[in-house]
User: Fold this.
Amino acid sequence: MKLLVTYFFLFGLSAIAVQEGVHAEECIFQKLDGRDADFCRGGLEVLYPELGDVGCTYIPKCNQYRKQISKEWTSPNVRYQKADRNKQYVLIMVDPDAPSRANPKYRCWRHWLVTNIKGADLKTGKVQGHVLTDYIRPTPPSHSGYHRYQFQIYEQPEYEAIALSTEEAASSGSWNIESFVDRFRLGAPVASTHFLTEHYGDYQWQ
Assistant:
């Protein structure tokens, strides 16, 4: 009887160990590479609950992270520790892959636009300023593959009043980010990063 109890005890431990091993393997964050990795510059961090900094990574499917980022979590903290406390910044978040990376006919889809962010706040991850576009959660359509969700930080020119045109404000899709940046003389972003995720009902091994 003791041998039987011992056998089931050891078998149970083995099963738990296997389950934990699979769980850990599924939750490994895979870093982006190639051209996708080149977009990540300047040390910009995008911080979601449980996940921490998701910059330059694929969002893993485990623990329903893809579903939570699409349906539950609100706007992330965006931290740029190199920000100058005496300057103000502009944050832009877009999806350049709408409706899919293979056919981005609605590029770029504007997900978040905030101006007048104080450098002191940006250094700590607080996105406080003048909101021109409220945060829209990443919602890639089913079977559209992976989408890039890009975050860019620009130094805001002093005394520059930034606003969306009537046409831009009417729709988040097909937004010409280059035209917007040129119109308000924002120049090149001081930092940028992105993460990739797909619809939470889809799954492809990386």
